[in-house]
Description:
- The protein is mainly α.
- The protein is built from nine helices and two strands.
- It starts with a helix and ends with a strand.
Amino acid sequence: MDTRDKILSAAQEVFSQNGYYTATMDMIAEKAEVAKGTLYYNFPSKVALFTEVIKEGFRYIAQRLMDIAYSEYTPDRQVLKCIEFFVDYCIENSSYVNILFFELSGGMDKEVREVADGLIADLAGIISNMLKEGMTYSVVRSMDADIASYTMLGAMQGVMGRYIRGKDKPDVKKVKENIGKLLSKGLLYKEAILTMKCPGYCPGIFYVLRLFC
Length: 213
């Protein structure tokens, strides 16, 4: 791990444990085991460091959502795969998620807030495009996809916050099933009939997707 990565890893932990305003550059330098001069050489201010921490997290999430969006899954399955990914990511990276979604909900410097708003808008945009694609195949209900995408992110954030900040250890399977039902009941048609190419030897058939019957 190079110096920059060590600093980012330490900053992630310090920000998560102490909050943005309580955390100091001294604390981060000590955690990263680097001199303050080295810390400031890589990141000239706490704002710059915190901004890079959240960018790193959002880049990864955005890439995974893009992978799902360009996968061979049908649009309705893409929505459900997004939910599964988000739950897994939150549980496996709870300290990071505490920064990305919950620390940001508090008061933030304007510069950080603007960056965060832009990153969240990027995630919502990816989900919105999935929903719009689903509407063209009649597997997603007709709605404002932009509003629906923010609703999805907000709902998942709220549910996972209970486990990330609470003492209860979540039943991952149960959480996925319930978030999936909650969101998809409002987003997806119970029966969606798609015309698509079947892999292999049956080039054109109707698939009847029975969701949550």
